[in-house]
Specification:
The protein has helices spanning 8-17, 27-33, 35-42, 68-107, 115-118, 123-141, 145-153, 160-163, 169-178, 181-189, 195-213, 248-258, 265-276, and strands spanning 46-48, 58-62. With 304 residues, the protein is mainly alpha-helical.
């Protein structure tokens, strides 16, 4: 069974019937943004189901205090936050590309061609084989001029500091994870991290980047790629900002931590400003829902 198609007028009518009586005033927003996309922002404004087995479920009826204006405000906050994250994440990504390529190239310009020799067995051997296979396909299909140049003039042998420009962020993190420990530690040190911590945090940053790039809801997203925080339990620099690794604010705090190392103070300020605009005036919506403590701005990690 498939849900029936509904016209824009029917969508507005559904929202009104469920309690968002000002929905007709936001017809243009619904048309531009999409009923389904906005429904994710409207969901927290629904009445909770009182059944004991469905505590996290909400019925198809909005609370008396809910309005389409609140949905629009929450959507705008999330859109501004995603833009700030995207601007910050791209600066971090570029910094990581440069430093991974530089450090691995210093040791072996073609280290990426010898990964299966570095990891001859075990789980890492499988990761190396998968990375090598995917990399081969990427380079063979690429139409980028610099890749075609190396294919024609160097029999496809591309130094790692060039290769890093051909990888997506996820591939870059995998390449880092496959480097020898000494090189991983050297790179991680440049970002104020342990090697294993840095890899974990980068994977979370890649998730943040992808959420923002694909215009998905971020503010109350469950972070499925949880960052390792066990080394920071007593780190006053973060204060209470890493309390819940499954919520967005922890990931955003790690991004804020990285930005000075990436030479991106302006992006950090923009990210902080976006969080300051959290729409706490909306009934039923709280910064706690994204893991943000009351005193977050006083934490050293958020000082610009």
């Amino acid at each position: 069974m498939v849900k029936p198609w509904t016209s824009l007028d029917e969508q507005v009518s559904i929202l009104v019937q469920r309690g968002l009586t000002d929905a007709p005033d936001y017809r243009d927003l619904i048309e531009r943004t999409g009923y389904y996309r906005l429904s994710g922002f409207a969901y927290p404004l629904r009445v909770p189901d009182t059944a004991p087995t469905t505590s996290s479920v909400r019925i198809e009826r909005y609370a008396p205090t809910a309005s389409m204006r609140s949905v629009a405000d929450l959507y705008q906050f999330d859109e501004n936050l995603r833009l700030a994250v995207w601007l910050a994440a791209r600066r971090l990504e570029i910094a990581v590309r440069i430093r991974v390529g530089h450090e691995l190239g210093r040791v072996d310009p073609l280290m990426h061609e010898h990964l299966e020799e570095l990891w001859p067995s075990g789980k890492m051997a499988h990761r190396a084989a998968e990375f090598t296979k995917k990399l081969k396909t990427t380079l063979e299909r690429s139409k980028e001029d610099f890749i075609i140049h190396h294919r024609r003039n160097y029999a496809g042998h591309m130094p790692v500091w060039v290769l890093t420009e051909a990888l997506d962020f996820g591939g870059l993190v995998t390449l880092f994870s496959l480097a020898p420990f000494e090189q991983r530690s050297t790179i991680a040190d440049q970002f104020g991290c342990r090697a294993d911590e840095f890899e974990s945090w980068l994977r979370t940053m890649n998730l943040l980047r992808n959420i923002s790039a694909h215009h998905a809801r971020l503010w109350n997203k469950v972070i499925i790629v949880r960052p390792v925080t066990k080394y920071r339990k007593n780190d006053v620099f973060f204060a209470d900002c890493l309390a819940d690794t499954g919520k967005a604010f922890t990931a955003l705090s790690i991004l804020a931590y990285f930005l000075p190392f990436a030479g991106a103070p302006r992006e950090k300020h923009t990210l902080k400003d976006a969080l300051r605009e959290f729409p706490a005036h909306i009934p039923g919506i709280s910064p706690v829902m994204m893991g943000m403590p009351d005193n977050w701005e006083t934490a050293p990690v958020w000082q610009c």
